[in-house]
User: What shape does this take?
Amino acid sequence: MNKGYWIVRVDVTDQEKFNAYASANVAALEKYGARFLVRAGAFENPEGTSRSRNTVVEFPSYQAALDCWRSNEYQAAVLHRRQAAILDLVIIEGYGEQQVA
Assistant: This one.
């Protein structure tokens, strides 16, 4: 079973409301086994467009990543975020095949 990932690019417009979103999403993320791999660290953008923050969240499966996004718990948290940030989010299935050099 391949892991699932949220690839998120964010511009925070209201930090206080964004903090409320971050607090509200904890239960859903824990329920679906989420683990932050990248959380607003330093970055360079050599091509294309970017936002001010980037996040990568890993889930135990692609289905868990989809289920978390669709869950009532997470959608309740989204109500806070929509007032606090502009973002792009992609839910993607990880590559499960053996890597070839």
